[in-house]
Amino acid sequence: MLRALNILLTTLLFSLSSAVFAVSVEDSKGTFTLDYAPKRIVVLEFSFADALASVNVSPVGIADDKKPTRVLKEVRDIIGEWTSVGTRSQPSLEVISSLKPDLIIADINRHEAIYEDLKKIAPTVILQSRGETYQDNLKSAAIIGKVLGKEGEMQQRLAQHKDTMQRFAEQLPNAVEVQFSIARKDNMYIHTADSYAGGVIRALGLSNPEITKGDKASRKVGLEQLLAINPEHLILGPYSTPNIVDTWKTEPLWSVLKVAQNGNLHEVDANVWSRCRGIMAAERIAQDLVTIFQK
Amino acid sequence: MKTLLSSFLLALLVAFIVALSLSLGAVSLSFEQILSGFDASSEFYFTIHEYRLPRSILAILVGGMMALSGALVQGVIRNPLASPDVLGVSQGAGLAAVILMTIFPSVSIFWLPWAALSGGIIAALFLWFLCGSHSGAIKLAITGVAMAALYSSAVDFLMLTKPLEVNNALLWLTGSLWGRGWNQITMLLPWLVLIPFAFSLAKRLNLIGLGDDVATSLGTSISMTRLWALTIAVGLTASCVSICGPIGFLGLIAPHLARRLVGGRHQVLLPCTMLVGMVILLLADLVARIINPPIELSAGIMTAIIGAPYFLWLLFKVR
Amino acid sequence: MLNRFKKQSYLVQCTALLAVLCLFIWLSLFSWSIVPVSASQAITALFQTDKSIIAHSIVLDLRLPRALIACTVGACLAVAGAIMQGLTRNPLASPSVLGVNAGAALGMATVTILAPSFGLFGSSVAAMLGGAVTWALVMVLGSAWRGGEHGRLVLAGVAISALCAAFTKAILILHEDQASAVLTWLAGTVANARWGHWHQLWPMALIGLVGAQLITPTLNLLNLGEDNARSLGIKLGWARILCSILVLILVAAALSVAGSIAFIGLLVPHMARSLVGHDHRKLLPISAMLGALLLLAADIISRPIIFPLETPAGAILALIGAPFFIYMVSRRNR
To answer: Where are the transmembrane segments (chain B) (predicted)?
Structure first.
């Protein structure tokens, strides 16, 4: 009797433990199944590194373009050391393989061509990262949490993120028009309403200029187009200084812009706003916005 | 005797660089480790068998085919500055690929080689339609150049109006062996059939080299030979470009180098050109991988950088 | 109608072209503006400026320099093309076909990325140097001086262009951050042109255009063939060097402001020749006006295509120009 109970208990425990580690999620290529909790993870986009760090998991390799400072500082503080696996556009498969990963997280936009090769190295989840919206990013984070076997923790973190964003939103004015742009030496790219930064801005109760809606890409604009958008607040992420805005400022037309008249031109870290993407990146963006509006 | 020796040395060089390609990279491997890489249970299985080996084989195939195509075009057009690029095939393939990437970004990347291949072939047909089969060689080349200019301006136009997809397209357009493997090799294999056909044209190409009048008087149909040679060149180029993207200068410089080594007889020149092409592309890909790991450069850029100085020097020589 | 226009005297043709040019400039001042500018405002802005009206500021600070620069750049490139065609006696010669554009692009990309602190002046000098080197190379390799066949010159140009383009692409990929700046430049646009650019452009353009007009008798003699020219007392070497310098001044002035604009230098001289024949004294001014008109028209067309955003005018020109190039080639060899 006792023996029978023992066997029953063992089988029950066994089935339970295997059930705990078998996950199955929908990624961009269909159903992805993993029957263990991954320990050595390689991520090929910054947004995935952010998702990992959000549940205190450190990747062994990141496609960081060989420039470690491109990874968000908050993320770096959590994950510690990692190995660079090359550029995001052409990660080195040899290096990935030499890290002996047990999970790879790739971007459907950049890495679809090497998906089959990645699968030969390790099970690969392929999700959207480049060109994703804020909501897409949160969904991807939830999927990653599930794959890591930390679904509960990730849900908790997402809920906490929602609260955090809500708290930031309360410190921000309502429905004020904010436009984020990248400035380079001789051109400016606006991030439209459907871009990542545009989505975060909306999620915080601010609004996007009407004219940029329904356009996913970032768009190059001249001073004339900027005049047509004429946002109330212009947030500038300079990739180089001096940049085109310094040139524009010397022109009479600049003073016609609302941002010039009301002094609502603000500078932020372009890397955080346009490259990083992720839970912590969104919180950094929100923090930046609160700092700007409480000045 | 000299030609035999040169060919033998070239073949040896190919083998040597393949060995180097297998051992060098982001992680350097010893000889034993390379051997163990062929065993599916080894930890180097992926690096050797799934990565470096197919990449080297692909470099051999593409290098050989592109170089052969260059030799055919130069043989027919009888101009040392001609190359498969002047037929507009690479640019046509590039345009088709960029259209697929920018206008239909949701289409799976799986279709990219097929789109590029059809683009290249359509470009060749269009050129043939514009020139007809009886036109002079120089006219063919210049019309091809004009077509190439048209395709590249269309590519520029697309890349500027669709900024988000630019980087993927730009990467493909510089020609790279990154991320290519056994699948691509199997796609390329059927095209190897063209190589014996190319070799069978060697004698007639020699006659064409003597001038149109001599060739005609010796009973060679110039326009037929030209048509065959160019068709084969188009097939070789289009298939290679559809896999790796346009790899510049290979078809231009490999035949010249081979001609310096073994002379102008096409029976020897064609195989030797292939060997030279293999050496150049293998070397370019190796350098592109190891110059700044884990950053990967494009082999197409490396062939340009290796090939350009030689090309300039050559231009001054043939002047 | 075209035939009737061809039969008119040179003076009438000039006046008519000038009138059309003025009309186009006026059009470009107000058409497809996101901030509404009316047709009449475009005129009043010029003569009764009221800076408090946004429309006036747009016309004066953005649209007017843009139109003027489009005209001048178009004129410079067209005249450069006409000189090149006269000099090499090759109807396909032009800055873009013979690799000058590609060389200038390489010079410009190198400076933009390796020494960004050099600024606008540095990059135009680099563009000029790059263009000069490729032009010299193509001329020497294509053995243009010795009356080599036309195809050879063009093939040399294409090969050198490909060489420069490969290096430019390598630089682009290695410095992804700056890629968009160089790509914009490669496409060629006058959308960001301002008075500052105008002040940089006009002295060089003036020297180039006036100089070009002064050497027209020499060009006419060169067209008679080398032996004839020599027997008429032309120092061939000097004439060629002078012409080359003028071409480089014109091209560098245009490219440093508007980026790599192709095909104007190829297309326009042919259009002009069909109007006034082969006399360079008439050919050059007509080419200048037609070139100005063409680039201005391309710039106007570039606005509505993906309105309110803009397409580079250079891309539009290439799409028009390349089929013309093909037509030219197939007609010549028939």
So the answer is: 54-73, 85-104, 110-130, 137-161, 181-202, 227-253, 268-288, 295-316
Q: Do C155 and B301 touch (CB under 8 A)?
A: no
Do A179 and A64 belong to one domain? no
Pair (A114, A152) in one structural domain: yes
Axis-axis angle for helices C264-276, C313-332 (nearest 10): 60
Select the residue from C52, C192, C303 to test the A interface by mutation, using most A Cβ atoms within 10 A: C192
What residues of chain B lie within 8 A of the CB of A91, using their CB?
A: 294
Q: In Å, what is the CA distance from C194 to each residue of A69, C58, C69, C118, C203?
A: 37, 11, 8, 19, 15
Which residues is C138 bridged to in the sheet? none
What pLDDT does residue B137 have? 67
The arrangement of secondary structure in C2-332, i.e. its CATH architecture, is Orthogonal Bundle (1.10)
Give the residue from chain C lying closest to A244, CA to CA: C192
Q: Which residue has the higher pLDDT, C215 or B307?
A: C215
- Spatial distance between the Cα atoms of A163 and A141, rounded to a whole number of angstroms: 16
Exposure string for C77-115, b = 16+ CB within 10 A, e = fewer: bbbbbbbbbbbbebbbbbbbbbbbbbbbbbbbbbbbbee
Mutate to test the interface with B, among A62, A92, A191 (most CBs of B within 10 A): A92
CA B235, CA B231: separation in Å to the nearest integer? 6
Same domain, A133 and A187: no
How many Cα atoms within 13 Å fall on the side-chain side of residue C2?
A: 4
Boundary-marking domain end, from A129, A162, A195: A162
Contacting residues of B for A89, CB less than 8 Å apart: 167-168, 171
Is residue B48 a contact partner of residue B34, using CB atoms and an 8 Å limit?
yes
Burial A214-229 (b: 16+ CB within 10 A, else e): eeebbbbbbbbbbbeb
CATH number assigned to the domain with residue range B68-318, chosen from the 4 options 1.10.357.30, 1.10.357.10, 1.10.3470.10, 1.10.10.10: 1.10.3470.10
Most B CBs within 10 A among A64, A117, A219, hence the mutation to make, goes to A117
Lowest-confidence pick of A57-61, B30-34, B214-218: B214-218
Q: How far apart are CA B257 and CA C83, in angstroms?
A: 37
- Predicted ipTM? 0.82
Query: Are A106 and A129 spatial neighbours (Cβ–Cβ below 8 Å)?
Result: no
Whether B140 contacts B132, CB under 8 Å: no
Q: What is the pLDDT of residues A153-194, one digit of tens each?
A: 999 999 999 999 999 999 999 889 999 999 887 788 888 888
| Other CB atoms within 10 Å distance of the CB of residue C214 | 11
- Of the three residues A98, A132, A162, the one that is the final residue of a domain is A162
Convert the pLDDT of each residue in C169-198 to its tens digit.
777 767 766 666 677 777 788 888 888 889
CB distance C37 to C30 below 8 Å: yes
- What are the residues facing A62 on neighbouring strands? A43, A84
Q: Once rounded to an integer, what is the mean pLDDT over residues B13-34?
A: 88
Give domain limits for chain B.
68-318
Chain A residues with CB-CB distance to C35 below 8 A? 224, 227-228
B5 interfacial to chain C (CB closer than 8 Å): no
Q: Specify whether the backbone of A282 is left (phi greater than 0), alpha (psi in -120 to 50) or beta.
A: alpha
Domain residue limits at A61: 21-162
Sign of the CA dihedral with B261 first, then B262, B266, and B269 last: negative
Domain with residue A181: its CATH number is: 3.40.50.1980
Contact call for residues C264 and C295 (beta carbons, < 8 A): yes
pLDDT of A199 higher than 60: yes
Dist. CA B10–CA B278, nearest whole Å: 9
Taking CA–CA distances from C197, the nearest residue in chain A reads A247
**Does residue C80 carry a pLDDT above 90?**
yes
Q: What is the structure's pLDDT at C334? A: 46
Q: A236: which strand partners?
A: A181, A267
**Of residues B36, B33, B54, B37, the one with CA closest to residue B46:** B37
